[in-house]
Design a protein that fits this description.
There is one protein chain. The protein is an all-alpha fold. It is built from 8 helices and no strands. The chain is elongated, with a radius of gyration of 18 Å.
C-alpha cells in the first residue's frame, strides 16, 4: 500500500480510537478556547467547560462514529478509475457517499457489506451487517448530542 494511503488510514484509525472526527476535535477545542477566554474575563463558563471536558473523556465509552468508519474503508478501497499511489479528497468523498447509499439498503449482499475491507474491520469491531443499523442509529444519536452540546455551550443564558 502506498505511504500516502497508509498515513490517511492511520489518521482514521486515530479518530476511531478517540471516537471523534478531526472536525469534532477542532470544534470542541475552539469552543473551549472561547469559553476559557470569556471565563477568565468574566469569571463564568466553568460549567460549560466541564460539559465539554466530560464529553471528551466519555468518548471512550461510546461507539465509533460511522462517518469515520466509512472514510477508513474508503481509504482502503481503490476504485478502478482511481490512482492507487495517490489520495484524492474528492474521490474519497464520492466513495463515502457510495458506501452510505449501499449500507442504507441494508441487504446482506449489498456492495458495502461485501467489501473485503468491511469484513476485516467488522471482525475487529465485532460487528455484523445485521448490527450495522443499530451502530448507525447510535452514531447519529451521538452526533445530535454533540450538536446540542455545542449549541448549549454557545448560549449566553446558561
Amino acid at each position: 500500500m502506498p505511504l500516502i494511503r497508509l498515513f490517511k488510514i492511520q489518521d482514521f484509525m486515530a479518530w476511531m480510537v478517540r471516537g471523534l472526527t478531526a472536525d469534532n476535535i477542532k470544534e470542541i477545542a475552539e469552543r473551549m478556547d472561547v469559553l476559557l477566554s470569556e471565563g477568565i474575563r468574566t469569571g463564568r463558563n466553568g460549567a460549560k467547560l466541564g460539559v465539554l471536558i466530560s464529553e471528551l473523556t466519555d468518548r471512550n465509552e461510546r461507539s465509533v462514529p460511522v462517518e469515520i468508519v466509512y472514510n477508513y474503508l474508503a481509504c482502503y478501497y481503490v476504485r478502478e478509475d482511481e490512482e492507487p499511489n495517490d489520495y484524492n479528497d474528492q474521490v474519497q468523498k464520492e466513495k463515502v457517499i457510495a458506501f452510505k447509499k449501499s449500507a442504507e439498503c441494508g441487504t446482506l449482499d449489498g456492495f458495502f457489506f461485501a467489501l473485503t475491507e468491511y469484513k476485516r474491520l467488522s471482525e475487529l469491531l465485532a460487528t455484523t451487517s445485521n448490527s450495522w443499523e443499530s451502530i448507525v442509529e447510535e452514531s447519529q444519536a451521538q452526533a445530535e448530542r454533540m450538536e446540542k452540546l455545542m449549541t448549549i455551550t454557545k448560549s449566553e443564558n446558561s
